[in-house]
Each structure stands twice: as C-alpha cells, then as structure tokens.
Amino acid sequence: MDVKLRENEAGAEWVYVPCWHNCGGRCKVGALVRDGKILRMKTDDTHEDTWERPQMRSCPMGHAMRQQVLGPDRLKYPMKRKHWTPEDPHRELRGRDEWERISWDEALDYLADQLKTAKVEASNESILYMNMINLEGYMGQVLAAWGGYFDCCGTQSTGTFGFANPQFGFGELFGSANDRMDLENSDYIVLMGHNAAWCAFGQAAVYLKHAKEHGSKFVFVGPEYSITAGFTNALWIPVRPGTDTALLLGVAYSMITRDEDGSLIDWDFLNRCTVGFDAEHIPADASTSESFRDYVLGISDGVPKTQEWASEICGTPVDLIDRFADINSCKNRVSFHSNSAPARCKGSENYPQMLMTIAAMGGHFGTPGNACANDQYYGAMNSGMLVHVPYSGTPVRFTNANNPVKKCVSLDLIWDAIVDGEYWDAGNNFPGCEVHAPVRETCDIRVLISEANNFLASQANSNRGIEAFRKVGFVFASAYYMKVDAQYADVVVPVCTRWENDQAHLYVGTNMKDKECSLASRAPLPRLGESRSDREVAAGIAERLGLDYEALNPKSDKQCWFEQLTQTVVMRPEGPMPVAEVTEADLAKYGVEGEVQPGIMSFEQYLEEGGYRQERSYDDPWANPAAQPFAAFVADPEGAPLASTVSGKFEIYCQAKSDWYDMVNGYANGGEGVADYVRVSPLPKYLDGPETYKASFADWETKTPGAYPVQMTHVHYLRRAHTDCDNLPWLREALQNPVFINKDDAAARGIKTGDTVRVFNDRGAFLRPASVTRTVMPGVIMVPHGASARIDEETGLDLSGADNILTCSNRTTTPFLNSWNSNLVQYEKYDGPVKLPRDCEMEQIIPLTDDATTAAAE
Fold first, then answer.
1. Beta strands in 443-488 (DSSP E)
2. Which of 124, 270, 345, 621 is the right S-S partner for 148, CB 3.0 to 4.6 Å?
3. How much of the chain is helix, strand and coil, in % rounded to 5?
4. Contact, 366 vs 360, CB < 8 A?
5. In the β-sheet with 569-572, what is the strand arrangement from edge to edge?
6. pTM of the complete model
7. What's the rounded Cα separation, in Å, for the pair 354 and 28?
8. What's 290's DSSP letter?
9. For 264-291, how does the pLDDT look when each residue is reduced to its tens digit (9 = 90+)?
C-alpha cells in the first residue's frame, strides 16, 4: 500500500483486514494499525481503477468496521442473565433481564449440562441448532458428532429461485447470464427488481454505468423508482410486490396478439429451443395437453391474460405493458437480470419459469447482448469462475448429511413449531440434501443455540420468535455484540472478530458475487477481553461432551486461513495457476503445513495487496461469445442439449417442475395437499398468495379493502448487511432508517416527511420517520431491511423499524418459502406517548461496561 503516513503516524502499518459481512461484496478494507489501535481506514488503491480491472472499493459499512470491532458495545466476557438459574430459568425475563459476568468454565458448563439434560429427557431432537442455509458450522459439527440436532432450512435470499429451476432450464442458483464484458452489446438491460446501487455491493453498479456509457438503455421493473433506475435513466415499469408473474403474462399476451410474422416473437427460437409454447410442442412427458399459448389467450381456462387483466393485478398501466412487449421484441438484444425479490413472495412459485419464458419469446439467450438469469451481478459471477477460492479450508459444510437427526423444519414455520410443538416436515431443500412429501411431525424443543446467526432479527415474525425463545428451557448465544438473539438468551459468550483471529470463512476469502477476484486479509489486532474463536468455543463444548475435537476438526484456524489463501487459483486456459507463491520460509513463519508452490505473486505480496483481481479484455477466453451460457445450446439444441431438463430444451411446459412441487406440497400420488400449500402447474401460471395485493381486499370483486390494505416490501440498504452493522453509530447517524411512502397516500393520511408513523398489522407494530416520495407506487411502502428490534415494553412498539416485526411466518404456499417482499400492513400518523429518538441517539446496548473498550475505540 502506497498511502503515505502522516507525521503523527510513525510506526503504524497499513493492513488489509476482513470485511466479513454477507452483503454480496466482501470488498477491500484497509486499516492503519499501531499498538493494537486503528488510526484510520481506506479502501483499494493497489492499482489504477479501470474497466478492465476495477478497484474493489468498500462502502460505508467497510469504513465503519472499526466501530464493529472496537466499539463500546463489543462483548468481551462470558455472562448470564442475572435471574437465570438452571433450577428456575425465569424465561419470561429473556430480553428484559440484567446481565452479570461469569467465567468461561461456568458458561461452557452451563451449556454442556443443559445439552446433556435435554438429551436424556427428550433426545437430541430437542436441541435446535439455528442453522442458516445449512452451513454446518463449528458448533453444528460438535452436535452432529454427539448424536445430532433438530435442523432448520429455507430459501432465504433466493426465494423460489432456489426451488425446481434446473427442471425447466435455469441450471445455476444465481443464474447464467453472459459475461460482464458482453453487457454493452445489449440494446436494453432489464432490471427485474434489482437496485445495484443500494443492494449489490462490489462492482455491479460500475458494470451498469459502463453499459450505459456505451449506449445500452435500461428498464427497471419494481414497486419503486430506485437509485439504480435513476442513475441509468431507466424506463420505470411499476409493478406491485408479488405480482411480477401477472405482469409478464400480460406482456406475453401483448406479444402473441400483436405479433406479425415474427415482428415481436422469435418463432425460430421457440420452435428449436423450447417445448410447451403451443400445442405442436407439448413435451412427451406432459400430463395434460394445455399449452402456454392456450393458457395466455384464455382458451384453456376462459380467462384471457390481457393487458387489462394484468394491470388490475399488478398496477402497471396498459400502455407500459405494451411498451415492455415492444422492448422484449426479437428485433432487440435484451439482457434480463432479476434479483430474488420477485421470488420472495407467497405465490411466486412460477415467477422464475415465467421470466425464462418471456425471455425465450424474444430469443434472448445465448447470443451477444441476449441473456436472462437470476443474476444480480451482471455476468460477473457466471460463465465460469476466473478466480476460484476454495471452501475446503473451513469446517463449514453445505449439507446436514453428518447430522444423525433428520427432522428439519422450514424457517417459515420455525417459531410455530417451537411454540405449538408440531409442524410439517418436507425435508431439507438445500443442494446436497433431500426433500420429501410433507409429514406431520411433533417436536419438543428444550435448547436453542445461536452461533453465527441472528434469527430474531433475520427471520419472519419477530414477536412470535420472542414467544418461542421464552418458551424453551435454555438459550445459548455466541456473539461479538448484543445481537437480538443474544439479548433474549440465558448465557452469552464473546467471540473474537476476524480482525483478531486469522481464519478461513465462506464470506471472507472471496468477493462472492464477482468471479474475477479474491481477497487476502489478516488479523492485526490482539483479542479483546476474554473473547475466543468459534473453534475454541466448539472445542470447549466438545471436551465437556466427551468428544475429541481435534479428531473432528484437526486443522487450526491459522491452517485453514493459510490453505484458503494458497489454494486460490486463477483458471487460465492452460490450467489453474495459484495466486500465491508458497516458500519454505512462508510455512515456517506462519507455523502451518503445506507444499511449496509457484504463484502469480509472493504470499506476502498477496497479503500486502489485500487480494488479486484478474485483468480483463474483450478478447480473453471468458468474453468469447461461444463461451457464454447457452451459446452452444442455442447454436445446436440437438447436439448440445440442456443437461438439467427432461427434453434437453427450455421447458415452458415443465412436468418435472410440477411434479417436484406436488411432492413437497403433498399432492403427489393423489394427495390432497397440506394447509395453504398450492398446486403448481407445469406452465408458469399466475398464483394468488396470502400477503399479496389481491389478499389485501376483504372482497376482490367489489374491491372492498381489508384491515391491512397496504403492501410492505423491504429493500437492502447501505446502512446494513442484512442485520449486521445496525449497531454502528456512524452509520446510524449518516443513514436514517425511514419508511418510504407514496406522496398521494401520505397526503391522504396527513403525513409529511419527518413525521412519525406507526406501521402495524396483527403481528406487531413499529414507529418510523416518514420519507414521502413520488418514487414508490401507491398502496406500497418500502422499509429498509434488517433493523434490530428495540421493543418498548409498555406499548409493545418497536422503535427501530424492524421489518420482520410485521412479516408473515406461517401462511405459506410452499415449504421453505418466506414472504420477505410482500406483507400486508396499515399505517397512520403517530402522535402517541412514545417519543421516537433519532437512530444515532438511541443508546447502544452495553450489558457490561469496560473503560478499556471505550478507550480502544477512541
């Protein structure tokens, strides 16, 4: 790093440090360190910022990381609730009690004793390890070896894109868009709900800016005119949350009825590369003869999916539906990029297939400028990784295969399962695991363990979650600040951050959403207080449970860190090339095992530069049009068929997709289905779902509003990475957490910007300052995602604007699906007794004070 030191910084050293939050970026963060203190911060400056090799610049969260590590609210000592004892846990005081310091031996003994008691009295099925996307972490590894744990799963970020998409042709979870170097070849870039400037940290917005400068036009489809729509000067196609499938059906109707000899529809593409569009192309495994064309025109069900039909549901003006159809014409080169928001709603099961279908109608696959994917990073992640960062150096596993307990509750039902003691078990939907027909199961959860997650903030229906936390016998949390799970725990232990401990991790070694780069960082600070690593916590529990942890996980954190860095390779045409050279001196310096190897740069240079970024060019192998996803298939569908579909083609009629849904929803083999679970057609039909627009009416036909007539959707926000960083004062001061309200709706309620509003439904209520705007659709409010609830005990009001206070956790249409992006609420101007402070004026949650921590932060 070549940033010069100031006169008062003698002896300080610039170090690239981990930015470990799950935001999608994992960018370069530099810290100037001296004597265990951080003097100032910076971001990537190791090379010139160019289109071919953009810098990996960090956002405000990266610069505020020093407060995350050294702030006065850092946890440094094990502690327990003051009124908790094993004999009398006072469960009702969780979230209300005071805290007292205890020793590490006491904390680990408490957890071990509670685990042993639960196992004897109710088996390992009574121990719920709060798992996220089935990343079996350190503690999960121990519990699996000790007889297992009750598991949980869900689609979380991807919504229905995480379901039966390979069956109809979307073979990769995060899509198969063309390489980013191809973006400028698109006449139009369609952003389905994706707001790169706020929600896709890293270089995504840079790629869009470049395409705009080279002549691409933009379309933004969503309930708000986003920041990204603004800087790309996009055409806004407004659509109500959860109704994107209806909108695209209206576009399909427009194209079918207005097409004149291929003026809009690429008939050659449909005939060669798809099945199911019309009666002449029904696939061989079809259980019905209904085609997509017949469904859209209303021939099969008597309901034409006209522009007017779609507009009534989705709120998009008819003229814009026709304009969208014209843009999607086969005469244009169009690149569709959808984030997961349209797929994170009840009833969104058919959205991914409908997105594929509308792109296929225009022939927008496999040729320059034509692409379609669940791809939030504009081809920077697809077409094969240029720089591959392994996960093999970490104990995290993408499976629960090692867990002897096979009971698993989907996260949309987790709180009801704990409180009610019964649930529908449809298996585990994560790749590498198995789903099955839903089975009614019982459960008796005695122990909750929160390791690297924060379920009370990140999962739906927080108040129901608090009820669940207060029901069980014991709650244990490991944390480095008082996350919401920790606030409602009985015993909390402090873990060190990745600025204090070198370790491999899924979210540290790579910029996950950019295939061109890797990150290299190290921990420059001593551990604060008595904090321990996650590995050390797990080892302490393993010992008390009679397990040999070194046999379970023989690699040290340092060894895993070293392996992740040195096994990172650049995928060159002649073969993979390690980024970091390894010498005998490197092995000796870091006390690790390994082999000497050549590399692009020395190991020390890799650390000093904070990572590696592959320089790109338009004639490199990854930009070759023939190397793009679907290129070989589109050129020769018979000779290079799709591997994931029965027909080898894109399946607009997909029996395998329908069969998958029939299985998990209970309709297979003549089943009658379960609860609110829907029957999903082989065609991408519109589905009504709870918590969506039509459900907001007490009577749809007469348009009589229901009790909660407003759709609340959430947006990822610069202030937080999901729930992380919400505790940082600098970010809380710089970025208020308002509720964004349509100006006409606000006027009807007498609300102005800055007024306090109460947003509520039968699951809870929160207070927030209003931000009145023209850029949100009528009947919709937008709430920044991830705030940590601050509940006023007298009124039950949350003062933070935590979106999950109001989200729905039970009425589901398919197992594993949460309703993050459409929930029904009401709101009003608030003049009640509770005064809402500015976010930066809310007191930090500091259960145990320590002057040394404050001094370190200063």
1. 447-450, 474-479
2. 124
3. 30, 20, 50
4. no
5. 387-388, 569-572, 575-578
6. 0.95
7. 38
8. -
9. 999 999 999 999 999 999 999 999 999 9
